């Protein structure tokens, strides 16, 4: 196994989690969610998405959520955007970081973005030019598409290569429907370094088939810079049938700390946040396990 | 990542799963459970345990379960035993394989075995002498004890070394309470080869803190011969507070096949078995994810 080191965990629950929950939090609760993550040591929170409110009603209060989360040192308030209009809204709202989406399959691109893959690449060029903060690109369906099936690894790497030169800060590989397995993760994370030198590498795993945590370990061993996670393991995608939760922030942190990988996060605070969120979402158990099983007083590195 | 190869998956659900369920299957259902696993390609099923019926009432029908599962080529009917009396009962019942338990912590040993660690080692010597089929040793709490906390890795390897020369066929490392993380798995599986040369290596992971599948991958990469799993991810331990399910047979198989590791198992049949078991246990969703998410028609190796 590769040597332990430090990995950034990006809390994406306020965006990728809440967009798929049947219960909608209030704007104030969404802001509190982000605040709680920052207080637990998270350095970057995807607080909302600036998408059309008819497409994702749960994100209709994007401007108000950002306004409710005070800026500050070590508090990167990131937002998802799908097009130039989203960048303009996010810029006006004053976010600190942007994440856009490039889908690795045409069918899903049309459903999620209402654009072709090529049109999205062109739009990303315009988005970078319009943005006043760093912009990253998430390659969705990097491990498979719910409509087209297998996505060739080379297609993913070719797309990464096409956007790498546009001035983006980061490329994220997203297993949108939770079909990936660790060997493919290793190859793609390795491959990214070749086609996108100097661009930060990030990954986004759903635990739909119980592969999410093994994939996260593979990504860490391959040298990933950042991993997405959602408090309690909430999440899914409104446009991906049967997609389920993200890896849980607290479970991922337990796993990484146990391996001696530093995250800077306070596990006890993360577990409290999961309990808080579970209450706000109606009380049914969330997919994350640590808030039920508890931390364990072993020889875990902090 | 290490090269893919073949790993044996041992179905332990009829023993380690059912012993902790509030609903008890009938003897005929238990036998059908084992038969279904064999029909899906599993070569070895832990069909029951020969323990005191007052200690584990769900296993009181051990003899009848074994009698209900016909012997045959490629159908290894294994059973758990904790002492010489168990070996005698299992021998009379005609099982094909035995698995006994050596606990790596004194407190848990007293609660689970009603014996000290040293007394268990001595008993294992007597059990090997009395057995007419291969006997393996599971080292329980190899990654941590719910009562004593951290268990030093060297203690686990020392215990393995003590029993390795007794004529046993296999040593299994069990994460009884689901606290292990992949680096420790790698070190212990590696270490076993040194202290128990020629003895098969097996591992047993619970997914209590969502580390089970990542641990399984680490064990495979370290060269493990066999991995335990339970249909639907059922399970727990009656003597380990808050222990939850085993890794699910179908989810583990999906993960390994996706990595090109052969198991000989039929994933579609495993998913059907999980649905069958869920119905028999009352219909509430089992922890395994694949039976909900479905197999995925990607480029997965068989």
Automatic annotation (TrEMBL), chains A, B:
<dbReference type="GO" id="GO:0016829">
    <property type="term" value="F:lyase activity"/>
</dbReference>
<keyword id="KW-0456">Lyase</keyword>
<feature type="domain" description="Pyruvate carboxyltransferase">
    <location>
        <begin position="7"/>
        <end position="271"/>
    </location>
</feature>
<dbReference type="InterPro" id="IPR000891">
    <property type="entry name" value="PYR_CT"/>
</dbReference>
<dbReference type="InterPro" id="IPR013785">
    <property type="entry name" value="Aldolase_TIM"/>
</dbReference>
<comment type="similarity">
    <text>Belongs to the HMG-CoA lyase family.</text>
</comment>
<dbReference type="InterPro" id="IPR043594">
    <property type="entry name" value="HMGL"/>
</dbReference>
<keyword id="KW-0479">Metal-binding</keyword>
<dbReference type="Pfam" id="PF00682">
    <property type="entry name" value="HMGL-like"/>
</dbReference>
<protein>
    <submittedName>
        <fullName>Hydroxymethylglutaryl-CoA lyase</fullName>
    </submittedName>
</protein>
């Amino acid at each position: 196994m590769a040597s332990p080191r430090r990995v950034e965990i990006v809390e994406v629950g306020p965006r990728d989690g809440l967009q798929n929950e049947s219960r909608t939090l209030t704007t104030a609760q969404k802001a509190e969610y982000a605040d709680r993550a920052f207080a637990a040591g998270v350095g970057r929170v995807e607080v909302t998405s600036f998408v059309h409110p008819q497409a994702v009603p749960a994100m209709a209060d994007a401007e108000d959520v950002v306004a409710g989360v005070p800026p500050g040192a070590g508090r990167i308030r990131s937002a998802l955007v799908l097009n130039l209009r989203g960048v303009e809204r996010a810029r006006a709202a004053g976010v600190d970081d942007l994440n856009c989406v490039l889908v690795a399959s045409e069918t899903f691109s049309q459903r999620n973005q209402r654009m072709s893959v090529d049109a999205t690449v062109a739009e990303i060029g315009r988005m970078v030019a319009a943005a006043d903060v760093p912009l990253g690109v998430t390659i969705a369906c990097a491990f498979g598409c719910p409509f087209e099936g297998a996505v060739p690894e080379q297609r993913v790497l070719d797309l990464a290569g096409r956007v790498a030169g546009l001035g983006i800060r980061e490329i994220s590989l997203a297993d949108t429907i939770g079909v990936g397995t660790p060997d493919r993760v290793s190859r793609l994370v390795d491959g990214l370094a070749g086609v996108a030198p100097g661009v930060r590498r990030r990954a986004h795993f759903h635990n739909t088939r119980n592969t999410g945590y093994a994939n996260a370990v593979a990504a860490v061993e391959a040298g990933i810079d950042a991993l997405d996670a959602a408090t309690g393991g909430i999440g899914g995608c409104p446009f991906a049938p049967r997609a389920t939760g993200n890896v849980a922030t607290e479970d991922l942190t337990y796993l990484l700390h146990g391996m001696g990988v530093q995250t800077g996060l306070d596990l006890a605070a993360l577990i409290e946040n999961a309990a808080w969120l579970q209450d706000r979402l109606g009380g049914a158990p969330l997919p994350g396990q640590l808030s039920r099983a508890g931390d364990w007083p072993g020889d875990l590195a902090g």
